[in-house]
Design brief:
The chain is 66% helix and 3% strand. By secondary structure, it is mostly helical. It has a single domain (19-57, 101-403), classed as Ammonium transporter AmtB like domains (Ammonium transporter fold), CATH 1.10.3430.
Length: 421
């Protein structure tokens, strides 16, 4: 085994800490009476995603240089889907680490909407959506970006820089998870007690901020592995440049949390712990796009912008759009990913007009094609297996309703029992 192979295996072993930390963040931001369901769901959704991706998801994605199907349109071959064997069969020494990396990373796509649908989303319906995301939507989009598909080939076919670039999964993992969260929240509607007639939205604070903050620290460790593996596999970076990828990941997260601390201190008089935690994750999300591709100063700037706009963006969605997103996943993962992808076009080491256009095409595909597809599939799945729990289940809590026991049986959970509706 070569030194590079050993490094990849060690990073893949650390990678699960990223979704594990995200699961803790989601749990802490939820109501206390849904805490156990939140973490059980994280385990189940990750398991479903892994099994489905192994069974047939990777065969649809394949890898750059592998077999696939193309459409000839306008004299151009548009590579749109992979054609690898099922159940990871036929992997080579070069492709096996990529498959192992992605089977751990795909859980992000299921966990992000799970946090946004907290306190009212049935676990069975969430598992059904995880099958669709890990088995079809993610493999197709990841093939276009990572598997030698048409987005990756924009540079060769249309001379647009290096094609759409996303080494750490800002689009394929975080952006896709963010738009899935938006689709789920649209269908589920707000939590009971969140919006009242003629009044401002009700405050439903995080039930355990210690989980949230500790989850941020755990997530950081796994995210370093995520960005390093993306740099190795999809940006062909090695040596000292890998060390700079780690530094840029830290600078993005640091700039974001400090910007959020300052913004919330100015706006609310005191820093807000949950928004600072969300900003930390937002900085990590943006780093997945830029960490391997920009100098350290630019990485810090990307993080500052991601953290600075977080609080106003979440407030806009809640107050102006009536969107109830307990984990902030739509902004934290969706908007931050888009910002990071844009930053590659004008801050990256190979920034150019062509590269910016390629990044815009990738973002446009995510929003204009993948989002409507995800929403349509969610709408159909909701007709077959309703997403939202029964009102009685929401009232008593998802722990009791779906698991039969609470996470904190010694404490009174129903502090919102008399909130007017």
């Amino acid at each position: 085994m070569t030194a590079d192979s050993t490094l990849c295996l060690l990073l893949i072993a650390v990678l699960p800490l990223a979704p594990a930390g995200l699961a803790l963040v989601n749990c802490g931001l939820n109501r206390s009476r849904s805490a156990a369901q939140s973490l059980v769901g994280a385990l189940c959704l990750g398991a479903v995603a892994a099994v489905v991706y192994c069974a047939w998801g990777f065969s649809l994605e394949a890898f750059a240089g592998g077999s696939g199907y193309s459409l000839q349109l306008g004299g151009v071959a548009w590579n749109w889907v992979g054609a690898a064997p099922l159940f990871f069969r036929g992997l080579s020494d070069a492709s096996a680490p990529i498959a192992a990396f992605q089977i751990f990373a795909v859980s992000f796509v299921a966990l992000i909407p799970w946090g946004s649908g907290a306190d009212r989303w049935r676990l069975g319906a969430a598992c059904l959506l995880s099958v669709v995301l890990a088995g079809f939507i993610y493999p197709l989009f990841a093939h276009w970006v990572w598997g030698g598909g048409w987005l990756a080939q924009l540079g060769a076919t249309f001379h647009l820089g290096a094609g759409f670039v996303d080494p750490g999964g800002a689009a394929t993992l975080q952006g896709l998870g963010g738009i899935a969260a938006l689709a789920v929240v649209w269908i589920l509607g707000p939590r009971r007690g969140k919006f009242t007639r003629g009044g401002p939205p009700g405050a439903i604070p995080a039930h355990q901020i210690v989980y949230v903050l500790f989850g941020c620290m755990v997530t950081m460790v796994g995210w370093l592995a995520l960005n390093l593996l993306g740099a190795i596999f999809f940006a062909q970076i090695n040596g000292v440049a890998l060390a700079m990828t780690e530094v840029n990941t830290l600078l993005c997260a640091s700039g974001a949390v400090l910007a959020a601390l300052l913004v919330t201190r100015v706006r609310f008089g005191k820093p807000d712990a949950s928004l600072c935690a969300n900003a930390w994750i937002a900085g990590l999300v943006a780093s997945s796009a830029v960490a391997a591709l920009v100098p350290p100063g630019a990485a810090l700037l990307v993080g500052i912008v991601a953290g600075g706009v977080l609080s106003p963006a979440i407030e806009f969605l809640e107050l102006r759009c009536g969107i109830d997103d307990p984990s902030g996943g739509i902004v934290v993962h969706g908007l931050s990913a888009i910002w990071g992808l844009l930053a590659v076009g004008f801050l990256g080491r190979s920034a150019s007009g062509g590269q910016m256009i390629a990044q815009l095409v990738g973002i446009g595909t995510l929003l204009g094609l993948v989002l409507p597809a995800v929403y349509s599939l969610c709408w159909m799945l909701n007709r077959a297996l309703p997403f939202r729990a029964h009102p009685h289940g929401e009232r008593i809590g998802m722990d009791l309703h779906e698991l039969g026991s609470g996470a904190y049986p010694e404490f009174v959970m129903h502090t919102d029992e008399f909130i007017p509706h």
